[in-house]
Amino acid sequence: MRILMIAPPGAGKGTQGALIAAHFDIPCIVIGEKLRDHVARQTDLGQAVESHLSRGELVPDEIVMDLVHEGYIAAKSAGGEYVVDGVPRTLAQARAMYVTGVELKMTANIALHLAADDKEVTRRLLARAVVERRSDDTEDVIRQRLELYHQ
Fold first, then answer.
1. CA-to-CA distance for 103 and 76, rounded, in angstroms?
2. What gap in Å lies between CA 88 and CA 146, rounded to an integer?
3. Mean pLDDT split into 10-residue runs, the chain, 151 residues
4. Where are the beta strands (DSSP E) in the chain?
5. What's the predicted TM-score (pTM) here?
């Protein structure tokens, strides 16, 4: 089982992806979490993406795909199954994921799209901001992230 979780920010990809991964005991590849970890540790990668994340912009595809590739390699060594949370965000990422999946014989076989309207995801993200204090959960950044998602 190789699953892509696709949805707007705040629709529940992380929650549902984690539940699915735990239920089937398969790795969950969460690119946003990996990026935020790099920012928190102030790695070179973290410093390169911090401004993108704080403004609600998409991180460059090359960086995202490097992390996806690492996740695929780790998942392959764990049995070849996975749940990917939040990628692809662009057509270029979708194409690159497919190529990487073909090369590693790990193409996704399920895509789950979670639907949620902008008003609901904004409410959820603002509530999350209170708990998690994420820099990308402000009204302006949420609006930007949703605009990018819809594009």
1. 12
2. 15
3. 95 95 97 94 96 92 96 97 94 96 96 95 92 83 92 89
4. 2-6, 28-30, 82-85, 110-113
5. 0.88
Cα 122 from Cα 32, distance rounded (Å): 18
Residue 124, both tokens: 């959820």
Q: Position 43: which residue type?
A: T
What pLDDT sits at residue 11? 94
Nearest Cα to Cα of residue 30 among 82, 78, 86, 98: 86
Q: What pLDDT score does 83 carry?
A: 98
- The per-residue DSSP string of 60-99 comes to PHHHHHHHHHHHHHHHHHTTS-EEEES---SHHHHHHHHH
CB-count exposure of residue 94 (10 Å: 0-12, 13-18, 19+): middle
DSSP code for 9: T
Q: What local confidence, expressed as pLDDT, does residue 137 receive?
A: 82
Q: Which of 115, 10, 127, 29 is nearest to 78 (CA)?
A: 29
